[in-house]
Amino acid sequence: MSLHNRYDFVLVFDVRDGNPNGDPDAGNLPRLDAESGHGLVTDVSLKRKVRNYVGLSKAETPPYDIYVKEKAVLNETHEKAYRAIGAESELTGDEKKRKGSPDTVDRARKWMCENFYDVRTFGAVLSTGINCGQVRGPVQLTFARSVDPIIAQEHSITRMAVATKADAEKQKGDNRTMGRKHTVPYAIYVAHGFVSAFLARQTGFGEDDLTLLWEALEQMFEHDRSAARGEMTTRGLYVFRHDSELGKAHAHALFDRVTIRRKEGVDFARHFEDYTVSVNVEDLPPGVSLIQRI
């Protein structure tokens, strides 16, 4: 069933003694805004967690298979699409032919949307190598930003083993390996999201897919535990539902209704209870309703 409503949503999550999204260009330190000191988590990181949850809960089977996943070879998936729509003849020959005819590309794109949840949800560039076109996804997420500036703590860690015999000989039997670990003591992050009914119609993203998206955003951290990420938890999912496809209010005006502030007298927040979350539901624009998922 296709969507007939626009949605704007606010995702609130926190981290305690963990690294929510390390920056490989900065020694895997937690990402931050260099000017303000606020922590950042990329939209790519959040989408990865949604993909992982959907893949786990639906066993990566159509129509809930995952296109961008670990060890995937994307062009092999494109080739699979061509074979599924009966266009094997366009997989051989010169480079121009391998780009596919307009009709073949359109049918391959449709097949990809039908079979891969993340393609019809977030969109994808499917034109690398074997051409399956491009898909603009109906669901978009912003970077998540921490409510307060963060500090990144650096910890020295020790492993009571070494990797090779040569390492052991160098240490004369001490057999220790030193390392470093970066954590954020505590922070609450807020991300904004958007669901377009118009783009959903183009990809086939329907009501069941939307329900699965809300479920994934609520549960994704429960199945993404690791020593590096510490404790991460979804603390709030506030969904503004418009009673039309075009919408009844500006997204930013709705997002401003969700405010998170540190409580007075709390100098160093270390728990979710150190903050106050308030949602202004008075005088909501006509045609907009709030669905508080958590």
Compact overview of the structure:
28% of the residues lie in helices and 30% in strands.
Explain what the structure shows.
There is one protein chain. With 294 residues, the protein is an alpha+beta fold. The chain has one domain (7-155, 181-292). The chain has helices spanning 43-58, 74-84, 95-98, 102-115, 117-122, 165-170, 197-203, 207-219, 251-255, and strands at 7-18, 22-23, 29-30, 38-41, 123-125, 134-136, 139-141, 144-149, 153-159, 177-195, 231-242, 258-262, 275-279, 288-292. The strands form 4 sheets. Strands 1, 4, 7, 8, 9, 10, 11 and 14 form an 8-stranded antiparallel sheet that branches. Strands 2-3 form a two-stranded antiparallel sheet. Strands 5-6 form a two-stranded antiparallel ribbon. β2 (22-23) and β3 form a beta hairpin. α1 crosses α8 and α2 (74-84) packs across α4 (102-115). The protein is flat and about 65 Å long. The two termini are 25 Å apart. The mean pLDDT is 93.
Helical content (DSSP H or I, runs of 4+)? 25-40%
What gyration radius follows from the Cα positions, in whole Å?
A: 23 Å
Major beta sheet summary: 8 strands, antiparallel
Number of domains: 1
Number of DSSP E strands: 14
Low-confidence stretches: none
Number of helices: 9
What separation lies between the terminal Cα atoms? Answer: 25 Å
Assign an overall shape.
flat
By secondary-structure content and strand pairing, the structural class works out as alpha+beta
> H/E order of the elements?
EEEEHHHHHEEEEEHEHHEHEEE
In round numbers, the mean pLDDT is 93
Percent strand? 25-35%
